[in-house]
Amino acid sequence: MAVSENNRYPLISVIVPVYMVEPYLDRCITSIVRQSFRDIEVILVDDGTLDNCGKMCDDWAKKDRRIRVFHQKNYGLSAARNTGINHAQGKYLCFVDSDDYIETDMLEKLLAALLEQQADMAVCNFVYEYERAEQIYRKNPESYQNDIDQTITGREIMLMAEQGKHSYCVVAWNKLYKRSLFEKLRYPEGKIHEDEFVFHHIMSACQRVICLRYTGYHYVQREGSIMHRNDSMQDAAEAFLERCRFFLERDDRQMALLSEGEALSAIKRMQKHTCRRERRQIQKEYWQIVKILSGRKDISFYTLLKRFIWCRIF
């Protein structure tokens, strides 16, 4: 296994945003410090947690010199990740959510595959883990899983996201990245669907992505998760509209059209959970995108008419 070229710095930086996860934090950190690949640093970002997690992070740092802790006010997940990125010293980055945990060989397998394939990013499968009434059961989401090892382009993985493997592709946490992918990129603060806002930027910069059938990440489902909030659809719609504009600027009509469809689905789901003024603003932005696409003949007249009628009655 490769080691860092410069002995002063670790090869992999593992970034863990921490907020109100006291029952889960020890398990998460334990799974990271026990990795079979040892040349790592663990960056714990205490995002103004109100429970005992801040002290737990400091206690872990006293036990393992590879752990560094940063305390900050509660600015949200994106800000915590950005703090981790800004302080990371590794050549490669990995994100782990603090209520999740990873297999002890995940980093070793991801790094080996990335180096062997000379890839910009390595991705592994994950398993849903539900905790209810003190019982744990796991679900391997077949529609999201990769059943073979394959090396593809970043654009191909964006297409995979549109074909039913959304979580596998879009989320930040089941991946190992070249640090250079984040040289000019940070997560947008104050957003719920922060992964959606950066996904297309990252994948557009990836020439090669190695996707593994190996399952290395445990995605813990718990009540109160931010992704289960009803008000997150406006955020998703904004992300898809931004993605659509991104592809239009690059004259990638196929990806722009796919992003338009995702935006429409998110806007429709907004109807039950957001006020009319917020919906109208998103609708206006969406209609501008549709007009651009129609001008380039990427949307048929019949589809354009349906979009127009829907926007008028929204």
UniProtKB/TrEMBL annotation:
The keyword Cytoplasm does not apply. Coiled coil: none annotated. SUPFAM superfamilies: Nucleotide-diphospho-sugar transferases. It holds the Pfam family Glycos_transf_2. It is an enzyme of class 2 (transferase). PANTHER family: GLYCOSYLTRANSFERASE, GLYCOSYLTRANSFERASE EPSH-RELATED. This is Glycosyltransferase, group 2 family protein.
